[in-house]
Design goal:
The chain has one domain: HUPs (Rossmann fold). Helix content is 47%, strand content 22%. The chain contains 4 helices and 5 strands; from the N terminus they run βαβααβαββ. A 5-stranded parallel β-sheet has the order 3-2-1-4-5. It comes from Marinithermus hydrothermalis (strain DSM 14884 / JCM 11576 / T1).
Length: 139
């Protein structure tokens, strides 16, 4: 694949700003788009723990709900990436997609520092970012 702009998505409901910026930068720089949806297993586990602590989940249903939640989020991630792919193709931008299951901080640490990276997230970064990473705060 040619030189890319990497777009990292973390929320299936809030990624419009990041997608628009990635498409604009890819078009301007004549680069392909590499869109990655990062699912943080720790975030899903925290959600299940919170539901359990509030009394919404009993011990017997906890594992079943955790598995169903994880699988549902994977499907949402794939749907989101299909939408991204359709938008990129509409703009004539080559695109590849991937779903990654890892904490966002670990994933970012593994990325090459020469490639532009746009992170679309609803939360603020919890780590120092390298100069090639732009954090886009979604609503």
């Amino acid at each position: 694949m040619q030189s890319t702009i990497r777009l990292i998505l973390t929320n299936p409901y809030a990624y419009t700003r990041g997608l628009e910026r990635a498409l604009q930068e890819a078009h301007t720089a004549h680069r392909a788009l590499y869109a990655v949806f990062v699912i943080d297993p720790q975030t899903l586990e925290t959600l299940v723990n919170d539901l359990s602590a509030m009394g919404w989940l009993g011990a017997s249903s906890r594992q079943h709900i955790a598995h169903a939640l994880h699988e549902g989020y994977r499907l949402l991630a794939q749907d989101t990436l299909q939408t991204v792919q359709a938008h990129a193709q509409t703009h004539g931008i080559p695109v590849e997609t991937e779903v990654v299951e890892a904490p966002i901080s670990e994933y970012l640490a593994r990325l090459p520092t020469h490639e532009p990276v746009l992170v679309s997230a609803t939360s603020k970064p919890t780590q120092a970012l390298t100069p090639n990473i732009t954090w886009i705060q979604e609503a």
